[in-house]
Amino acid sequence: DANIAAGNGDKIAIYWEGNELGVDATLTYNQLLEKVCQLANYLKGIGVRKGDAVVIYLPMLMELPIAMLACARIGAVHSVVFAGFSSESLSQRIMDCKPKVVLTCNAVKRGPKVIHLKDIVDAALSDCAKNGTVVDVCLTYGNESALKKESTKWVDGRDIWWQDILPKYPTSCDVEWVDAEDPLFLLYTSGSTGKPKGVLHTTGGYMVYTATTFKYAFDYKPSDVYWCTADCGWITGHSYVTYGPLLNGASTVVFEGAPNYPDSGRCWDIVDKYKVSIFYTAPTLVRSLMREGDELVTRYSRKSLRVLGSVGEPINPSAWRWFFNVIGDSRCPISDTWWQTE
């Protein structure tokens, strides 16, 4: 709303790059607000109220940040579960936060592989029901490039097609004003010490922090195109795919696919395509691309790059040097950041 009020309604909020080459889409801030409001109105229509939990089990479609923002708009608490997690991991999180609704999609292609997300959700919900936690609604986005609607397993009365129902809702929705200390989202730690623990982030402090760190850690300018390669299932994706960039009115890249598909030059193909100026990724990815050799990098221009960022574990010296010398042509500073879900 603030970005539109400032006259940036027609600016691109999200550049979406699909798994397959040549499959892409964009949303301006005006279009993003409309989609967020439609989903927010739908959620209110099925009884989601301020403080209620909503579990989001979606891949990197534009619907994932839309779902997060729709929850925030009505004061609901989103819990994004990384769409690579098992049905057991998903059911643990559902049983812990007892959501009114689960948002998912029927399937996704990651590289050449089709992942049947709806089957995983079905298994998780059936497991939850056996343990006394029943979820009444499963809103499912039909991702037809991965799986046709008619091939999707369906539970009548519980499952609803996203594209069938959402267009019926109004494109404006009043904001549910919340206190600075009211919850914004739950994100579960991976559960390496047994049961996953839900970390709760509140609205005010989190928003101020992500907006500020985005602006200063990356030297953000309004002309930048920003790409954080993290999935929204992790804290980095929450902070620097969705909230940080959008609070600053930035244009952010959301990538559905894998960095090594169709080959390991895909990241630099995307950088050139969208003229990405700030590129933020993990040392793990830097090391895996480093093993593939320089040629897959140097065949692309990368002239648009201005700032590089590293996130996850602290970066090791050889990966730092390769990132700086090869990816950034020894001219882009590296903002080396790391933190935890907490």
UniProtKB/TrEMBL annotation:
Domain AMP-dependent synthetase/ligase: from-to ranges: 5-342
The record's section on Pfam families has: AMP-binding
Q: What class of enzyme is it?
A: ligase
Gene Ontology molecular function terms on file = acetate-CoA ligase activity
Recite the UniProt keywords alphabetically: Phenylpropanoid metabolism
Species of provenance: Thymus vulgaris (Thyme)
Copy the pathway line from the protein's UniProt record: Phytoalexin biosynthesis; 3,4',5-trihydroxystilbene biosynthesis; 3,4',5-trihydroxystilbene from trans-4-coumarate: step 1/2
Which positions, given as ranges, span the membrane? none
* Enzyme Commission number(s): 6.2.1.1
**Annotated SUPFAM superfamilies:** Acetyl-CoA synthetase-like
Keyword set includes Acetylation? no
Name this protein carries in UniProt:
acetate--CoA ligase
